[in-house]
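Quick note —
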Amino acid sequence: MIFKTITYVYALNIIFIFNKDILIHKFKFLPYLIVFFYFNSCIDPVSPEFEFIEDLVFIEGFASTKEKGSYVSVRKSKLEYGVYETETIKGCSVKFINSNTNLSISLFESGDFYYPPLGFKVSPGETWEVEVKLTDGTIYRSIPETSPNSVPIKSINAKFKTELEVVKDDKNNNKIIPGHGVLLSFDDPEEIENFYLFRYKLFEKELTCKVCYGTVLRNGKCIEPEGVPFYFRFEYFTYGCDSECWKITYNDEITIFSDKFTNGLNINSYEIGTIPLYSYQNLLVEVQQLSITPSAFKYFKTLKDITDNTTSLNSPLPAALIGNVFNSANSDEFVLGRFTVAGESNVEVFIDRLEYSKQVVSGAGYVRLYPEVYGMPLPGPLTYFAPCIETRNSTAIKPEAWLNNLND
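Predicted structure written out below.
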């Protein structure tokens, strides 16, 4: 990647150096350029204005030593109706390529992601890269990366805290939120340096499989009802699931660990994430402990350093976007994102929240149930249920580690 220098004229005449280590941060769905800069003299800190650039390509991917741990997302930045956001690029040809054997694995498109065939996993010590071909013929490749060995997790524990975190309420007053901290224990190998990235996803029983805002559900689609009296007003309708369904959510913080000062030691009760108590429903936490390369660790550490001071409880996942992916025909193009090959260990913990139900802080991220009711002036037939759709965020397949509890 060729280094570039872009000069922005501000009141302070700051010169920004724009190179391949620059990161882009998506904050409140607004991607802004985050740049390193140098000052010619001591000045008071100010909030700089950043320039948004459209049609930047974002490629994020993982190839894991565990089945179902690998995926690729391909997006681009855009400005729509005055809102800065990213959208998925559909119809790409995506491949994982073994750099040693030239074995090529084609990924299939599902929703906003590309996945390898069921059963795919890499082996420790194998070197892989990703190739993404857009519909216009543009080809992006990644620098080859070798998978480290995975490090087994010894134990996992969910510890309840009456004061998990403090947030601001609608009146800007401090509000104490209870919840659980997720703690891992593992033995760090002594023979080499190890770098870790921790991710987790949460499974909860889904109460509503469809929400229609300003519309009603008919024949599987949200449509505007005809003939509704002017005096009858509704904001939305909710529809229950016609079968068992689980909602899947993903952590939005970056948790990394280096054994620089703990090489070869037993790591006990290391907190990799927190889960606020916003629901009384039971919860399954599935944790990924990813052993990553030093360059991947540097990438995620820089991202973490940038985003830790800007993220909030409800902010979207920030993304550091310039990494090891490049345009094979145009070295001047900034290709944002990273392809990471990782050794994965995972473990689950089931949290029975019934005993904490009186401490639940309600109303955050949950839609109040509002079903259609007999007698409402709505076109028939009234609808009460919707199917559970298999997506990245929902599934009808019962997680193996889910426990059968009386309150499910």
